[in-house]
Specification:
Elements: E1 5-16, E2 19-30, E3 34-38, H1 45-53, E4 59-64, E5 67-68, H2 74-80, E6 82-84, H3 97-107, H4 126-134, H5 150-162, E7 168-172, H6 180-195, E8 199-203, H7 207-213, E9 216-221, E10 224-229, H8 231-235, H9 238-245
Bound molecules: adenosine-5'-triphosphate (ATP).
Length: 248
């Protein structure tokens, strides 16, 4: 079957005053693909996610499944099938896992798709259960975040973005704080999610995670793509080594 290009940007640029945070970025993510976006602190990774999802003013093209979305508001991009996580993606401690997802659903205007998970009557919530099943957490729908491992909490954050038939997720440092073992488990879960056809853009500073799970990588430096390719190609790229270690 032909691959579907879920996300494609052309000439995507973001300026903050005199700072060029993103410069002319061309990037694609296919269905079923995990694409890594790496680069030093301040390289513009979060800004790229902001621009793609409609949280930063940008110029250039953003297409979701071929359709231009760069001029529509963030909430409409979300309902069209792209979702992001945030660097400080905390869960509501006093709500159950299912309720945490329900809040997200209500905020993005997908309310009509769920029954009321706040009344305590289960089983409700088709699309919530569907998202939890995708990350292997259906069994903890009625627990509170504090009762879960950190790895499970991180996956709830991913499930919150997957709710509502999301086809493209942009994950901003979703594995921060996980140890080596937890991070590997998390990566395996991302592979299972991608295997369902979801496209994933992954930002993370954990290089072993990124090199392990990504099909392709883009490297940003000062807002610009300085290299793109397979994990093996990227590791050997002199420009990448220089950006990370500093040129002599
Ligand atoms: P990190 O790895 O530290 O999260 P990053 O690669 O995600 O960094 P960004 O946060 O996208 O980098 O920042 C890119 C550049 O844009 C930086 O110079 C930053 O200071 C600037 N920047 C980001 N957001 C804003 C904003 N809202 N207003 C002004 N400048 C900003």
């Amino acid at each position: 079957a032909a691959t579907t290009t879920l996300l494609s940007t052309r000439g995507l640029s973001v300026h903050y005053g005199g700072v060029t945070a993103n410069a002319d970025i061309d990037l694609t993510v296919d269905a079923g693909e995990i694409v890594g976006l790496i680069g030093p602190n301040g390289a513009g990774k979060t800004t790229f996610v902001d621009a793609v999802t409609g949280f930063a003013k940008s110029s250039g093209e953003v297409r979701l499944d071929g359709e231009r979305v760069d001029r529509i508001a963030a909430n409409r991009r979300r309902t069209a099938g792209m979702a992001r996580t945030w660097q400080a993606g905390e869960l509501f401690a006093d709500l159950t896992v299912a309720q945490n997802l329900a809040v997200a659903v209500q905020r993005v205007g997908l309310r009509a798709l769920i029954s009321d998970v706040f009344t305590g009557s289960r089983p409700p919530a088709g699309i919530i259960d569907e998202a939890l099943a995708m990350v292997g957490l259906l069994g903890v729908a009625d627990r509170r975040p504090g009762e879960l491992t950190l790895g499970q909490q991180k996956l709830v954050g991913v499930a919150r973005a997957l709710v509502g038939g999301t086809r493209l997720v942009l994950l901003d440092e979703p594995a921060a704080g996980l140890d080596t073992h937890e991070s590997r488990e998390f990566g395996a879960e991302l592979r299972r999610i991608a295997a369902t056809g979801v496209g994933i853009l992954l930002i993370d500073h954990d290089m072993s995670l990124v090199l392990d799970v990504c099909d392709r990588l883009y490297v940003l430096d000062f807002g610009r793509v300085i290299a793109a390719g397979s994990p093996t190609e990227i590791q050997d790229d002199p420009a990448v080594v220089a950006a990370y270690l500093g040129s002599p």
